[in-house]
Amino acid sequence: MNAHEIDYQIYGEEMQFVELELDPQEAVIAEAGNFMMMDHEIRMNTIFGDGSKQNEGFLGRVLGAGKRLLTGESLFMTLFSNEGAGKKKVSFASPYPGKIIPIDLTRYDGKFICQKDAFLCAAKGVSIGIEFSRKLGRGFFGGEGFIMQKIEGDGLAFVHAGGTMARKELRAGEKLKVDTGCIIGFTQTINYDIEFVGGIKNTIFGGEGLFFATLSGPGTVYIQSLPFSRLANRVLQAAPQGGGKDKGEGSILGGLGDVIGGDRRF
After folding, report:
1. Order of strands across the sheet that contains 35-38
2. Which of 21, 135, 196, 232 has its CA 20 to 30 A from that of 37?
3. Which of 221, 264, 266, 222 has its CA nearest to residue 241?
4. Is 148 exposed, middle or buried (CB count within 10 Å of its CB: 0-12, 13-18, 19+)?
5. Which residue has the higher pLDDT, 135 or 259?
6. Can you tell me the distance from the alpha carbon of 147 to that of 116, in angstroms, rounded to the nearest whole number?
């Protein structure tokens, strides 16, 4: 195997974290901001890209890191390596409520495609790159542009899902229609396209967006019930205007109470 072999344990229910056990000289890579805790003799280093092209010289490392800019990610990732004599542990936490999903790339022919913000961490040697869409429909209406993220190699990777995770095994020719934001990822055998909802009433009054993703088997698909974008929109909608406390919240009068109370001006 090119990737390091690591053991892991996932803890928690709604706000999970994954604890990785590293043998001496083993290492993992992670996106900035996911670190939780580590043992004393684990060393943390900032590296170009994912570290999978370290043997290809400076140019290879720069090209590998540069591709990450296309997904809106940083040029750098963080490498955590065990430089002690015994087994050591390092932990990474979920960025928001949901589930952490282990992806064994050897089960998926060495490649898994996911939303760009789904990746959490992986064994050193796993490559984190970009997946270009060849279809214009995906690029303009898919919610992720022309690019999704691809995880390649022969090791373990971990992705994060918002809310509850559903795993679907699609047979050859079987199709599944999904809200574009609810896709966590899928295997490389899945055909992914964007489809117009259709219908005047659906388009104008549906409230579910104009497009959804069509996933065709065979292959495995991971779906999340609460994308972070949906969670953020709900929080913004519920937030009181002007930064103050909304006195009408939970009352029968609601906003009318603010008008009567003189708190709302026209």
Report:
1. 7-11, 17-22, 88-93, 35-38
2. 232
3. 264
4. buried
5. 135
6. 8
State which H helix or E strand residue 131 sits in: strand 127-132
Per-residue pLDDT of 4-62, as tens digits, reads 889 999 999 888 999 999 999 999 999 888 899 999 999 999 887 666 655 555 555 55
First to last CA, the chain: 68
Q: Which residues contact 251 (CB under 8 A, 6 or more apart)?
A: 257
Q: What is the CA radius of gyration of the chain?
A: 22
Mean local confidence (pLDDT), 108-134: 86
Residue with tokens 């290879």: 60
Q: Sign of the CA dihedral 107, 54, 51, 74?
A: negative
d(CA 180, CA 176): 12
Q: Is 181 helix (H, G, I), strand (E, B) or coil?
A: helix
Domains of the chain: 7-238 (3.60.160.10)
| Residue 89: Cβ-neighbour burial (10 angstroms; 0-12, 13-18, 19+) | middle
Residue closest to 179 by CA, chosen among 134, 239, 115: 115
Supply the pTM of this predicted model: 0.77
Tally Cβ neighbours within 10 Å of residue 69: 11
Q: How confident is the model at residue 69 (pLDDT cuts 50, 70, 90)?
A: low
